[in-house]
Amino acid sequence: MSADQLYESFFGLTERPFSLVPDPEYMYWTPEHKRAYSILEFGIMSRAPITLITGEVGAGKTTLLQKLLSDINDDVTIGLISNAQGGRGELIQWILNALDINIDPAAAYVQSFRVLQDFLLSEYAAGWRVVLIIDEAQNLSAEGLEELRMLTNVNSNKDVLIQLILVGQPELRDMVNAPNMKQLAQRVSANFHLPRMSSETVPQYISHRLRTAGGTGNEFTREACDHIFKETGGVPRLVNQLCDLALLYAWSAEENTIENRTIQAIIDDNVFMNRAANTEEDKS
């Protein structure tokens, strides 16, 4: 029996409200998330060569992308690459696969690039824009980032034929701002860094997800929410992990409200594995 089958009916929920799977339906629009999404939309509408979105692990970047994909206009051909790695030649294969362009994997780099260029030109001629999203872009090498920059040189009548959206952890911004990446940085027309949630936002976030799953939104006391913020540092993914455990603990104790002692019991039992790292981060 899974955790959701254990506590869902007990709390009157239709599903687990704190799943770790990105789900646009559960998106809580903090002011920062609204601004990040606006930057994504602006980047596409303004035909920005490169749009850059960064944030901590679990800050909600991938959920924003899922929302963007569901809202994208019909005149846009979009490709999504998640966690691409490799050097020159391998990245071009990732791009071709993301755009559903069939080519022999053993083809030479020049041939692969020509096929991609021909595809971009044909899409442009048909009135379509091509947007390539690279999630977890901090895993790319400097060579890979430079290869992406070269893609923005492919143009027709001064129009950019492919727009790039780079999404990743904070170190991605450092990589783009490195002295040897000045040409890449100059192509970034829109960028935003998504911070962690504040102590005031966390209770609202928790209540929102509970209501979305059919709950009242009052299952967690304010003291419990404050403790959750302390243990997670406001990172949405970690908040979800701790809240999921809290619902499980409260169900096992037949308690309809999650109080501070429930959160402390989880910490004392050492089942919330991210606590030590977060505590150190909060002190720094």
Mean pLDDT: 88
Shape: elongated
SSE string: HHEHEHHEHEEEHHEHHHHH
Estimate percent helicity: 40-55%
Q: How are the strands of the biggest sheet laid out side by side?
A: 2-3-6-1-7
The residue ranges in which pLDDT falls below 50 over 5 or more consecutive positions are 276-284
CATH architecture of the largest domain: 3-Layer(aba) Sandwich
Total helical elements: 13
Main beta sheet strand tally, sense and closure: 5 strands, parallel
Please state roughly what percent of the residues sit in beta strands, choosing from under 5%, 5-15%, 15-25%, 25-35%, 35-45% or over 45%. Answer: 5-15%
Structurally, how many domains make up the residues?
A: 2
From the alpha carbons, calculate the radius of gyration and give it in angstroms: 22 Å
Assign the CATH class of the largest domain: Alpha Beta
CATH topology value of the largest domain: Rossmann fold
CATH homologous superfamily grouping of the largest domain: P-loop containing nucleotide triphosphate hydrolases
Give the strand tally.
Answer: 7
Instruction: State the end-to-end distance.
Output: 41 Å
Overall SS class:
alpha/beta
